[in-house]
Amino acid sequence: MNEAERQPLGERERAVLALEGRGFSGPGAKERAIREELGLAPVRYYQLLNALLDDPRALAAAPVTVNRLRRVRESRRTER
Predict the structure, then answer these.
(1) At CB < 8 A and 24+ separation, what contacts does 39-48 make?
(2) Cβ partners under 8 Å of residue 62, min gap 6
(3) Main-chain dihedrals φ then ψ at residue 36, nearest 5 degrees
């Protein structure tokens, strides 16, 4: 385990995982929440989220969410 893996997830990383675990009604609701709650552009949010999917700390913190998103990412890769 390297030094980065021993550090706990930061507040922003935990907030990204928590937001991703929620359900959203209607188009644009998630993007609005990303901007309002996290203060991030949606593009930056998805960059952070994608990096978190490869982080073992994120898997330990939110295994259901991370595993679901990994499956979605893998299925999209195989469709290409």
Answers:
(1) 45/16, 48/12, 48/13, 48/16
(2) 17, 18, 21
(3) -75, -45
Whole-angstrom Cα distance, residue 29 to residue 51?
Answer: 23
- Given a cut of 80, whether residue 6 has pLDDT beyond it is no
What pLDDT digit, counting tens, does each position of 7-35 carry? Answer: 899 999 999 999 999 989 888 999 999 99
Q: What is the pTM of this model?
A: 0.85
Choose among 58, 79, 56: nearest CA to 16.
58
Average pLDDT over residues 36-57: 97
- Cα–Cα–Cα angle for 16, 18, 23, rounded to 5 degrees: 110
Pair 10, 57: CB distance under 8 Å: no
